[in-house]
Amino acid sequence: MSTDPKPGGYWPEGYDRLILDEVDSTMAEAARRAPLIDRPTWIMARRQTAGRGRRGRVWEQPAGNLAATLIFRPNATPAEAARRSFLAANALFEALAIYVSRDGLAQKWPNDVLLNGGKVAGILLESSGSGPYVDWLSVGIGVNLAHAPEGLEGVPFQPVSLRGEGGSPVAPEVFLTVLASNFATQEEKLRQFGFARIREDWLRNAARLGEVITARTGREEVSGIFDTVDGDGNLVLITGKGPRTISAADVFF
Fold first, then answer.
1. 48 lies in a domain?
2. Same structural domain for residues 218 and 168?
3. Cα-trace Rg, the chain
């Protein structure tokens, strides 16, 4: 493993880096290390044996793809911590835009990045804490840099890879540096301008804004015009019965 903080480029000041050859999942490793961290730490694994995405879904990691988790103490309420998914998506979008035309990239609410209509990256947030502020927050990021997982059936957005869609090849360690730098920039934006600026940046690259989409919750399906994301990060749809605000759902279009 490596803890060298400057792998072939600018590494943001104040962040640590840990690279492991193999781990069950970087999210699980982050949870194990949470009591010991004293500053934000990126954990990357060259191979995961039990990677996972939202709602317990399996996240496959073919060789050459990125699996990484940032673990830190955000000094935030649970609601504020949850909105970091938009910050992470912005950082991920800008990192990918270095290697492929940004015209093909789009943000899908709540936490995916699409490339030419396929899913190229996903984000998973987990936090812990029983008081008014979270004790720690883990931001897990998976990116199909070199290969798209195969054999996935019934998924609404087929996985694609950066390289498969014509993007420039990039090693996971190098991409992590670019991603970490962009994340630090987004954190500084949040500190200076608040979530309104993060939301504005996210909406600029939102997929199907102003078009009809469907949000599937655990109880119902709601279709309507994707109007905006509100100040709490909720999806706002304009339906035949008026505006609907949705806090958690899978989105289809």
1. yes
2. no
3. 17
